[in-house]
Amino acid sequence: MKKNWTLLIPIYNLEISSDIGGELRVDRVLFVSASKIPRIRKRLGLYCTVADYKHRMRLAKSLGDPFRMASTYAVLRTKREDDAPLTHEFSVVKEAVYLLASSQFFRVSRPNRILFGGPEFSQRIFDSFPLVCSESEQWRWSSVRLGPVGPYRLDRNWRRYIEHHHFPNLLRLLNGQLAVKEEWRWAIRRAAALAGQSFFARNLWEAFSYNMIALETLLTEQGDKFPDAIVERVVLFLGWMTDEDPAPWQVVIERLYRLRCRFVHDGEAGDIGVMDLHNADVILGNVLRNICDQTRSVREKADILRLTEEYKARKLLGLKQVRPRGLSFISKPLSAHDQRELEEKRHWWW
Hints:
It is a single chain. The protein has two domains: 2-101, no CATH class; 153-344, no CATH class. 43% of the residues lie in helices and 14% in strands. It has helices at residues 41-44, 50-57, 87-101, 156-161, 167-174, 182-200, 204-219, 228-238, 247-266, 274-293, 301-316, 336-344, and strands at residues 2-11, 14-16, 23-26, 29-33, 72-81, 126-132, 139-145, 152-154. Strands 1-5-4-3 form a four-stranded antiparallel beta sheet, with helices on one face. Strand 3 and strand 4 (29-33) form a beta hairpin. The termini are far apart.
């Protein structure tokens, strides 16, 4: 017999400030500050008080407080049988973590990303190793920090920083405040989660692959000719940046797709460079933002296909292009310093 349960999962290295209410809902999952849980326990579905649960669980202080394992908890209310595995529930929470991680995608530089989630992020990790010269007495003792210094903090500043990002409208889409076709909502959700996975990936080729899958999720359908279909639909959203000249987009996207195919079909990832990942970030970041912003014009993927055909027809006839209003483009040039920093910080992130 199924009963109603509340699952509370500690989310390490994430803080939610009281100045934004101490909580943030991402679809079914509520990220809430640990200090707020006792005050809203009935809303969370806790039958007893937090103090009573602590007493019942009989956990000694030396073993930790079950409601203070981390600064933030992911709370999911679910209907399940008593002894059923938590596989589904954890997958829902993990996806919510990646969706929240997408609030950093193409906003925070990759060297400055802040990882959060499972217990592996509960501590600062340093990798120390010796390097010795085989021809002299020279030696070096190196230490590389593999994680961020501080937590990812959601507060008023964070809310201000994401105003011109895809994330606010993504939340509105997920929470039902913006109306689109349900299949399209799920496609945007999957693409945003892939962007979050890309940002958290420790491998260059893995991050690159997530980006390319997300672009295909948003812009392509079965039977499309690749990479032409992606080029056409990227130009629909961003071609005004190049005076309707598709050539610059075609050059970049053809290279990205060629690298994608070499990896997927031949297992070759060595040619994927930092600049390729950056270019994929730029395209996905801007496409995702415009799609989340244009829910009145694009309520389903078919609208993108229709607008693309209209764009091509107007270009063939020499007519002025008409696009949805409010399209935007954010440029984040990768300086030589940033590129060098990314290369140097690859370390175990190869």
